[in-house]
Specification:
- By secondary structure, the chain is an alpha+beta fold.
- The chain folds into 2 domains: about 5-55 and about 260-405, no CATH class; about 70-245, no CATH class.
- It has 15 helices and 12 strands.
- Helix 10 (about 260-295) runs parallel beside helix 14 (about 370-390) and helix 12 packs antiparallel against helix 14 (about 370-390).
Length: about 400
C-alpha cells in the first residue's frame, strides 16, 4: 500500500479541514488552477478556430494549390495555357486531390453613373466547386455555367454597397486593353466572407468571357486550382503536383501565394504561448503558496510522522499528493468551464465581433482534443515539479518542537 497516498487522501477529505483556516486558501488555489486551465484552453481553441476560419476563406478564393504558366508575370492577368486532360488525370491520381477546376482572372473597372471601382473578375467553368460561396451566399443564387455563355455574375456585399447594386441589376464593366472593351453582366448573387482583402475586389463570372476578351480559343485557360482533402500535407502535395506537371507550368501553394496572411496567422501562436506561460506561472505560484500554508498548519502531523519513523521524502510525498488532488479539482472545473463555453460558442455564436476588424462576425472556436490533453498533462507535470521545491521545508521541521506546537 502507498502510505503517503493514503494519508494524503485522508488529509484532503478530513472533516476538520472545513473549519480550518487553510480551507479558503485551498479553494483559492483550486479557483486559480481552474481559471488558468480554462484560459489556456480557450486561448488555444479560439486561436485554432481563428486560424482555421481565415485559412478556409483564403482557400475558398484560391484553392489549395494553383497551377499556372511558368513566367514572371505578377499582374492579375494570367498568361494562357492549354487545358490538358492528361495533366488533369495526372494530378487527380495524387491521393489527397479532391477537385481540379479551371480559372482565369482579369482586371476590370465597374462603372455606374459617376461611380467607378477597380475589381478582379475571376472566370470559372463547369468544374468549379461552389461549396465555399454557397456557404457565404447572403442574397440571390449562385450562377450556373455550362456550355452556353452566361452573363450572370456573383459579386461581394462590399462591392454591392459601394456601387449600390442589387440582385438582378445590370453591371457594366470596362476592360482597359487595345481596343477598350465593355461587357454587361447581370448580378445573380451576393456573397460575404468578411475577408476584406478579397471581398473588395473579387467577382466571379463565366470563364468564356475572359477567353473572348483575351482573344483566347476555347481550350485556353489561366490555370488550374487544386482542392485537397487533407491540408496538413499542403506543402508536400504542392511539390508533388509541381513534379507531375509539364516543365513550362508551375504549382504554388496558397500559403506561398499569400505569405503575408499565413505569416500573420503564425505570429498569433506566439501570443497564445505567452498566455500559456503566464497562466502556468499564476497557477504554479498559487499552488506553491497553498502548499507552504498547508505544511505550516500540519507541522504537528509532520512531527508525529517523523517520530514514528517516516522519512522526509515520504512526508513530502504526502503533501505533494495532497496538492495534486487540489490541482485535479482545478483541472476538472477548468475543463468543464472551457468546454461548456466552447460548445455554446461553437453552436450559438454567443460572442460577436466587428467583422471589419476581425474578418468574421463571431468568435470562432475549434476544439482540439490533442491540445486539451497536452495542456492538462502539462499542467500536472509542471505543477508537480514546482511543488517538489517548497516541500523541502518539511526537512527543516523538528519533531520535538512541532509536536509541542499548539
Amino acid at each position: 500500500m502507498n502510505t503517503s497516498l493514503f494519508i494524503a487522501k485522508r488529509l484532503y477529505n478530513a472533516k476538520e479541514n472545513n473549519n480550518s483556516y487553510t480551507r479558503p486558501i485551498i479553494r483559492i488555489a483550486i479557483l486559480a488552477v481552474a481559471l488558468s486551465v480554462s484560459i489556456m484552453l480557450l486561448s488555444v481553441f479560439i486561436l485554432s478556430g481563428f486560424k482555421a476560419e481565415i485559412s478556409d476563406k483564403v482557400f475558398g478564393f484560391g484553392g489549395h494549390v494553383s497551377v499556372t504558366k511558368f513566367s514572371y508575370n505578377q499582374s492579375y492577368e494570367n498568361d494562357p495555357i492549354n487545358y490538358s486532360k492528361e495533366i488533369v488525370l495526372k494530378i487527380e491520381s495524387i491521393d489527397d486531390v479532391e477537385n481540379i477546376q479551371q480559372f482565369a482572372t482579369k482586371a476590370g473597372i465597374i462603372k455606374k453613373e459617376e461611380e467607378i471601382l477597380g475589381v478582379i473578375i475571376k472566370g470559372v467553368g463547369q468544374d468549379y466547386n461552389w461549396k465555399f460561396f454557397e456557404k457565404n451566399l447572403v442574397l440571390g443564387e449562385l450562377p450556373i455555367y455550362d456550355s452556353v455563355t452566361s452573363n450572370k455574375v456573383l459579386i461581394s456585399e462590399n462591392i454591392s454597397k459601394k456601387m449600390k447594386l442589387e440582385i438582378g441589376d445590370d453591371l457594366v464593366m470596362y476592360f482597359v486593353q487595345k481596343p477598350t472593351r465593355v461587357r454587361k453582366f447581370i448580378i445573380s448573387g451576393i456573397y460575404k466572407t468578411g475577408l476584406t482583402e478579397f471581398d473588395e475586389i473579387t467577382l466571379l463570372a463565366d470563364i468564356k468571357h475572359i477567353q473572348k476578351l483575351n482573344n483566347w480559343n476555347n481550350n485556353q485557360i489561366g490555370g488550374y486550382e487544386v482542392l485537397l482533402s487533407n491540408i496538413d500535407n499542403l506543402q508536400y502535395n504542392s511539390e508533388l503536383i509541381d513534379e507531375t506537371i509539364d516543365f513550362d507550368l508551375k504549382a504554388i501553394s496558397i500559403k506561398d501565394k499569400y505569405p503575408q496572411i499565413f505569416d500573420w496567422l503564425r505570429l498569433q501562436d506566439f501570443n497564445v504561448l505567452i498566455i500559456i506561460i503566464l497562466m502556468l506561472i499564476v497557477g504554479g505560484v498559487n499552488m506553491v503558496t497553498s502548499l507552504l500554508i498547508i505544511i505550516l498548519e500540519k507541522s504537528r502531523l509532520i512531527g508525529v510522522l517523523k517520530a514514528i519513523g517516516a522519512t522526509n521524502w515520504d512526508i513530502r510525498k504526502v503533501f505533494i499528493y495532497n496538492s495534486l488532488y487540489i490541482i485535479s479539482s482545478g483541472l476538472l472545473f477548468g475543463n468543464l468551464v472551457a468546454l461548456s463555453f466552447s460548445i455554446a460558442q461553437k453552436y450559438f455564436n454567443l460572442i460577436k465581433l466587428d467583422e471589419n476588424i476581425y474578418f468574421m462576425s463571431y468568435v470562432p472556436i475549434k476544439i482540439e482534443f490533442l491540445s486539451l490533453l497536452l495542456i492538462n498533462f502539462g499542467t500536472i507535470i509542471i505543477c508537480y515539479l514546482i511543488l517538489v521545491i517548497p516541500s523541502t521545508v518539511i526537512s527543516k521541521i523538528s519533531p520535538a518542537k512541532s509536536i509541542k506546537f499548539e
